[in-house]
Predict the structure.
Amino acid sequence: MAQPAQDLPPWAEPPKTIVYHDESLRDRLNEKLVYQAYVTGEDWAKRKFYPGNKLIIKLRDEVVGEGQIVLVEAAPMGRLTRHDATVSGYKEVEDLVIALRKTLPTLKKWESTEVYKILYRWI
């Protein structure tokens, strides 16, 4: 007898893709020194990033490696810390914010724009 369809656990779903566009991150990505990415709330809702999901990490069109999501957390862009910048591959918070403002849509007051921080580990 057929069983009803059940939800898949996050680690059994197809891999999600994180694409970095900032060429200055190439060396740090290749050395696996970047552990955090950012998406908008809309992108998070559409693609459903959850802890346990497998990731394919790209720099533009080039696959850099694979990872697994450890933590997903919402935060306003104005509350990002130096630690967030460091694990994202930037030296200063200002550099991270500039990169995010170039790639993500922001509100007029960019400090209140909510982003989802995706912390991952390399596989």
The mean pLDDT is 89.
